[in-house]
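Work package 3, deliverable 3.1, input record:
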Amino acid sequence: MEYTVQRLSSLAGVSPRTIRYYDEVGLLRPCRINSSGYRIYGPAEVDRLQQIMFYRELGVGLKAIKEIIDAPSFDIKAALLEHRARLLAKRAQLDQLIANVEKTLAQAEGRIRMTDAEKFAGFKQKLIDDNEKQYGAEVRAKFGDEAVDRSNAALAGMTQEQYAAWQELNQKLMQTLTAAFATGDPAGKLAQEAADLHRQWLNFTWDSYSPEAHAGLPQMYVDDERFTAAYDKEQPGLAKFLRDAILIYTGQKQ
Amino acid sequence: MEYTVQRLSSLAGVSPRTIRYYDEVGLLRPCRINSSGYRIYGPAEVDRLQQIMFYRELGVGLKAIKEIIDAPSFDIKAALLEHRARLLAKRAQLDQLIANVEKTLAQAEGRIRMTDAEKFAGFKQKLIDDNEKQYGAEVRAKFGDEAVDRSNAALAGMTQEQYAAWQELNQKLMQTLTAAFATGDPAGKLAQEAADLHRQWLNFTWDSYSPEAHAGLPQMYVDDERFTAAYDKEQPGLAKFLRDAILIYTGQKQ
DNA sequence: CTTGACCTTAACGTTACGTCATGGTTTATC
DNA sequence: GATAAACCATGACGTAACGTTAAGGTCAAG
């Protein structure tokens, strides 16, 4: 299939000017010029434009994109895998922002309090991403993934010790929760211990705790598929079980 | 808590220049200037900056942001709810991009074929979002949600009839699948009917079908929490059941 | 009391296009 | 077979949201 400027632009969802600009800077040249001087683009150019769009979406500058995809070492499969990883990271950041907006709403309603730093969670993370974009690959290669993650945690305002403790707490919560789930009783001793661990875990990221806020959470856990997926991944029904345990723990039920 | 320029900038994860620029254009003025001419920002400015960051993240221009948050009718709770909705929409678009990258990878390995339009799925959607940003609210208020969704579908290259058919097919698939799940037999007649409906449903968005590609999908369904959540929301275990049914349908199993 | 890290204003540079202007080409329609 | 609408081309200037550098004042620590 061959495309003129506007056809290609509407295929990709950009403006004709963008296509011409990419020609101007040598990023995307037409495969040929027809008899009346029109730019004509072929399948190879379509694929190249797709790659450009992925990089652009991830915030890479046009000059850098050109260097990357024109490099003789450029490997499309590797590039696609990297795109996937970066897009997943971006999604994780978006999830942080969504959590932030929900917390801010809770604060606006007086249900919780937030520190100033918390008000920018998910925005600061963007800096981390940009850092990663530039140096992440090298550092990861040299010192391993853990080093990078620790560094990210530090950047996010958590010390290494805090981060380790938070990780450990999360693991403990999961263990206790699955054990409690086996008993089937959300009012039982194990389930209530899990609810308390959940409160502790929450305190790491929330800074101030109130029973009302804690009680408001679990319904969100069940309603929001992101949370259900995280908990139910271990065992289906775990999210609902945790909700019931917390409702009893906070005195909302029974 | 009071902040100087750099302290505020590092709190929010932006550059000092950005903070000064926002003062210059009247978007974020310091609450006072100290004796040596330094800009000082208080709690109200921190909250205002957070709002600015949310709007900026969603692609709103600084001038428009100023008009919105300076309007006397500005309601912070309503704004936060709108942020949440827009962020969720952005997340859905990211999911499309992730699916796109995965399909492109499958195509690079020769497992499936893609149309040129499919190669830009999730990018074109961005146009839809921008449209929504400008006119969505009004149209939604006037004609209701359904009208907007139909319009989005048309924009995405689907006719209304196609979209309706696609919706109906999806509903039918879910009904058949839950019925099949009740029998517990992925090789049974109902389960195989569900697998065939799934193939038809897929054909709406994939354009070209191959048994290999179809067989490669279900493992992804189980591995990727987005898909498991979508299916298991109805009934836990549904995703795995569908995987087994498809594996038998494509002849990969038994 | 000096050094380095902060603060100020001013002004020019940059990226990735948007937006005309001016003129030729193709396509649909009457 | 003309004519209008919708496309194509190349300039060339405009713009948003800062980055960057320069030239000078301020403050906390050793």
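The beta strands of chain B are 32-33, 39-40.
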